[in-house]
Amino acid sequence: MILNNNDLKKLAVFAKKAALSAGEIISKAQGKPIEVNSKIGGENIASNVVTEIDFKAQEAILQVLEPTLKEYDLGLLTEESADDSSRFEKDYFWCIDPLDGTLCFSRNEDGYSTSIALVSKSGIPVIGVVFNPRTKTLYNAIKRGGAFKNDLPFRLKNKSNVLTLLYDQSFLRIKNYEQEIKNLENLAKELGLNEVKLHHLGGAVMNGIITIELAPAIYYKHPKKALGGGSLWDFAASSIIQSEAGGFNSDYYNNELDLNRKDSTFMNHKGVIYSSSEKLFVKINGLIND
Fold it and tell me: Considering the domain 163-288, what is its CATH architecture?
């Protein structure tokens, strides 16, 4: 079933309602003691933690979205349920992370959010909705329809005189970390910027989107063989919101993100780059792949 623009608008309403419903559950639990459990994930700690709030948020989302599965013949992929492979059978599938940044949520730190995307079988996101319960901010986008923040146009604005590097804890463990920071500092000077500012957020979803808020800014994860590097649901919604807002994102090889990977849900195989502009992306890509 090929969806038209009216279908996408209707489905975006469902996605926003679902994200807000999950966000209400997360908001009520913010800052309260909560049990953190382990699950099977990638090599980093963040991909191996889960709480009861993850499951409650997912349940709230599915209560809203389940009617659309039959009506629009959609598949489903969500972090806290087994992959049923419907994403390979249907023309589109919901790609859901009920609580991205569970680790920082459990620590009451910035960076967590709810992320919902509608992705085509070919791996192209056509709807993206992200809700930040900490700031009560709703981001959304439809392909070729622009991006919105709390229902107002969300567009790139280059106002800063520093280059902001968004990062999570895994970035601190990369090979040649200090040299990479020095290279970024040299690049900042080349671009006429005063310095490189490091900005830590725990969740990949918000890191990608905030490249627009803090432009000029970048967020990237190196390719690696070990499982990890974020998952499909970490980048599906944020990538369309970020690009529709004027940003640029791709894998390390300047190809579209592989958002319906056949052999895994992890994104470690080709890496990820988010940049507030294509010009900056070209510079960063040349620098880190030199």
Answer: 3-Layer(aba) Sandwich (3.40)
CATH of domain 5-153: 3.30.540.10
Long-range (24+ apart) CB contacts under 8 A made by 253-262 are 254/285, 256/123, 256/124, 257/123, 258/123, 259/95, 259/119, 259/123, 259/124, 259/125, 259/232, 259/235, 260/87, 260/88, 260/93, 260/119, 260/120, 260/121, 260/122, 260/123, 260/232, 261/123, 261/232, 262/88
Lowest pLDDT segment from 36-50, 127-141, 185-199, 276-290: 36-50
pLDDT, tens digit (0-9, with 9 covering 90-100), for 57-91? 999 999 999 999 999 999 999 998 999 999 999 99
| Cβ neighbour number for residue 1 with a 10 Å cutoff | 10
